[in-house]
């Protein structure tokens, strides 16, 4: 599990990279999502 925040004043730019034979997003399990997604 991981979570990311940016307490700084400079906007954060994040690049996500997936590798492997399957790169879909339907295998994501969200745990205690404070944003209600």
From TrEMBL:
Domain Mannose-6-phosphate isomerase type II C-terminal: 1-33
InterPro entries: Man6P_isomerase-2_C, RmlC_Cupin_sf
Highest taxon of source: Bacteria
Protein name in the entry: Alginate biosynthesis protein AlgA
Originating organism: Methylobacterium dankookense
Gene giving rise to this polypeptide: algA_1
